[in-house]
Design a protein that fits this description.
Number of helices: 5
Oligomer: single chain
Distance between the termini: 38 Å
Strand order of the largest sheet: 2-1-4-3
Number of domains: 1
Number of strands: 4
CATH class: Mainly Alpha
Helix content: 40-55%
Shape: globular
């Protein structure tokens, strides 16, 4: 899959979700709009799928386990969904400062073989392959980050406008990636 096809598919999937994010009608006893729970699940599925595909373009996310209940815990052990070993700050990747998540998560820590899941502090670090186009990866990271923020905005009882705002910003940034030049640059040329 080319990066252009990736963006075209992602854009289409996001627009489909955006059209289903409507404000609930508070005057009705029933609500037949898509719930935040459903929107959140759809976005999580989409995010995971496109995040895994982003590896083809050099962007990966590695989970760093900062602490766990094991008294012999080794700090900063990592796990990932790619099935490859990526040690923290390993030299084969560019470790920036981007993070998709930081906080407590219920998962297994790799410091103990066959460890049972526990709630402990993790950080999802964004890294780039050394041979990747770094500027392109940064723009892709920004788009994926907006989707991740939309997921956070889709918690129960939160206004749906936040979900739409992040998804629309992601779509606008995808548009810039697909157009021959970014929209702002095009508009500046028209104004001259």
């Amino acid at each position: 899959m080319t990066l252009e096809r990736y963006y075209i598919n992602l854009r289409s999937d996001l627009l489909e979700i955006i059209t289903g994010v409507e404000n609930a009608d508070s005057s009705l006893f029933w609500d037949n709009t898509t719930s935040n729970y459903t929107t959140r699940r759809n976005l999580e599925k989409l995010f995971k799928s496109y995040l895994n595909k982003a590896k083809n373009f050099g962007l990966l996310v590695v989970t760093r386990h900062c602490e766990c209940p094991n008294p012999k815990h080794v700090r900063n052990l990592t796990t990932n969904d790619y099935g490859i070993s990526i040690p923290y700050r390993g030299g084969n990747y560019i470790w920036g400062h981007g993070q998709m998540f930081q906080g407590k998560r219920y998962c297994a820590c790799p410091c103990t073989k066959n460890a049972k899941p526990t709630e402990h502090w993790v950080i999802d670090d964004v890294i780039y392959s050394k041979d990747a186009n770094i500027e392109q990866c940064k723009r892709l990271e920004s788009i994926l980050y907006d989707i991740n923020e939309a997921i956070d905005s889709a918690e129960d009882k939160k206004p749906r406008s936040g979900i739409r705002e992040y998804l629309l910003r992601a779509v606008l940034n995808i548009n810039d990636e697909l157009l021959p030049s970014p929209m702002e640059q095009y508009v500046r040329q028209l104004i001259k």
